[in-house]
Specification:
Helices cover 46% and strands 14% of the residues. The chain is α/β, with parallel strands linked by helices. It has an eight-stranded parallel β-sheet with strand order 1-8-7-6-5-4-3-2.
């Protein structure tokens, strides 16, 4: 069983989706010791699953955490920089994840390049390990296609913002200059509508817009209410934790419990 709130992995890997300075602050903070402190805090808060990249850094950290008694479940994301996809999947599967997900950047690049057969082949490669296969994407139409094609995806990772647009597309939608990554608010409704239609489990991510919708507790609560209003009973939300200044695991768990009406022993 997976908790309705799971921990995302981007901050641990230094991906803030805000600025280079924030990326570096995250990398400086997340020593091996601090990653393990965060994972332990997640477990105490009732968050029983971590979703993160299957890169060398994470594979080593997860092994170390488990060797020291950590029990958190793991969902692996394939690492786009790993040239040998089959090897990446094998190495992830060796650490007994409860799922392996094709990384959203990989999915979307193959989609844009009209290499849909490669998406299907990669999902089959994951499925052949005996681990539940997932597909991540920033584009709702990819889920439509995957459903219609009957691909072996056991779950989806659905991003609430389409970060796979070209710069030219972003400029057109913004109607002016775009600096950095383009977070387009109407994307949320489109992806949440797609999540509400599928019967497969969805893990919704970027609920807070990578920090853009979490200035206050009220902002965070509203963002999560929006997600759970569209989500099915087995769907989850993944939130990246950066607990440098506060216990974000406990804070986010409290918000989800408030929305779900869950008691202290359940999330």
């Amino acid at each position: 069983m997976v908790s309705r709130l799971i921990a995302g992995g981007n901050p641990v890997s230094g991906y803030s989706h805000q600025s280079r300075a924030m990326d570096e602050e995250m990398m400086d903070y997340f020593t091996a010791a601090n990653v393990k402190v965060m994972l332990a805090a997640c477990e105490r808060a009732g968050i029983n699953t971590w979703l993160s990249r299957a890169d060398r850094h994470i594979l080593r950290l997860l092994r170390e955490y488990r060797n020291e008694g950590g029990r958190i479940q793991w969902i692996a994301q394939t690492a786009p920089e790993m040239a040998d996809f089959a090897r990446n999947v094998r190495e992830a599967a060796a650490l007994r994840p409860i799922g392996i997900c094709l990384h959203g950047a990989q999915t979307d690049r193959l989609w844009v390049d009209h290499r849909r057969e490669e998406i299907a082949a990669r999902l089959k490669r994951i499925s052949d390990t005996g681990v539940r296969a997932g597909l991540a994407t920033h584009i709702p139409e990819v889920i439509d296609w995957c459903e219609d094609a009957g691909l072996p995806a056991g779950f989806y990772m659905a991003c609430l913002y389409n970060l796979s647009r070209t710069h030219e597309e972003a400029l057109e939608l913004a109607g002016g200059p775009v600096t950095g990554e383009f977070f387009y608010e109407p994307d949320r409704a489109r992806m949440l509508a797609r999540v509400s239609k599928t019967k497969k489990q969805c893990i919704v991510f970027k609920a807070y817009g990578a920090g853009r919708r979490c200035a206050t507790r009220g902002d965070r609560l509203a963002a999560l209410r929006e997600v759970f209003a569209a989500a099915g009973p087995g769907d989850c939300v993944a939130i990246g934790m950066f607990p440098k200044h506060s216990d974000q695991a406990a804070d986010n768990a409290a918000l989800v419990r408030e929305i779900l009406g869950a008691g202290p022993a359940r999330l």
